[in-house]
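User: Sequence in, structure out. Go.
Assistant: Echoing your sequence, followed by the structure tokens.
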Amino acid sequence: MPTSSGLDRRRKRTLMSLAFVAALASGGTALGAPPAAAADPVSVDYTCTGPGAPDGAQPLQVTMTAPATVPQGGTANLTLEVTTQLTVPISVPANGVSGEMEITLGGAGSGSVTATGFTNPGRIPSGSTVTLTGGVASVQLDAAGTATFAPGNASVHVFGVTVACTVSGTAPVAASTEVTPA
């Protein structure tokens, strides 16, 4: 039978997983290269699996910022922020959560890239929603036209536990970049 300290660690790990999933579920994602006005956040439903994952689809607010224009063959540097509507049951220390999110390209772009570097830069008090910032990705855009970027599947890591989240339904376009002919 586990000791009480073992149960406490397991309970804390599960609670921290819940906190991270909550933060991911109400996310804003920003992608940036040459500065552009930040797009409005989009709401994306995610279904998550792993220790502490909530049942059913959970909405995340994702804000992406992408450059307004990039020359054909150039690189768009994206930045992301994600916010959850769920609240954390315990306080989470600064940088206690990290994550990655796939970004699906459309229009003049194709394929996907992974944004990395998400974290909570400050302490998250118990009962608060979670916002993860610092997500970045770069994508080379070879075709002229409008490239679009939509949130994709994500992973959240908290206290050694990983929660995998898949998009439920179709994620809306969160940002776009005009790729100008070379």
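User: And one key feature?
Assistant: The helical segments are 4-25.
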